[in-house]
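Good morning C.,

I know you're traveling, so I'll keep this short. The sequence:
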Amino acid sequence: MYPDHTPHRAVEVHQPTPIPAPVIHPAPVVPVQPGTVPAVASIVLPDGRVVTGYAIDPTRPEPITAKPAVSRAAVNVALGGVGFLAVCGGLLLLTSFIAALTAFIGQLIILAAVIFGGWIAVQVLSGSGNKGGTTVNIRRAVIKRNHFHS
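The tokens, ready to paste straight into the viewer:
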């Protein structure tokens, strides 16, 4: 079992100590008298035998517990909170829409000013060239019945 170069050792074997089984003493049966004496029922079987015994009421399930009623105040507070949040969200959207619309109108005004200013600049800076139209020398004109005659 051991190689030759190791010393032999004595082997001790430990056996487990058995645990004694617990002694079960049956609980004494104490007869309990019912609060009221149940009625004794007798049944006659078809073969003529009579069976006598106590009538046992069928076990009834426990009644289902009704959900506790929610108070009207709690419902009103909850609905008021939802309504308040809806109004706040609507006002936030409304203010965002108004700010966007204001910025859009401002951009349109700036665009119109740039276009109109550019048109005016072109008219002013293009002073040379053929002006077109009719030039009237007012000093030589004779005004008669709203007509200019030269």
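Safe travels,
E.
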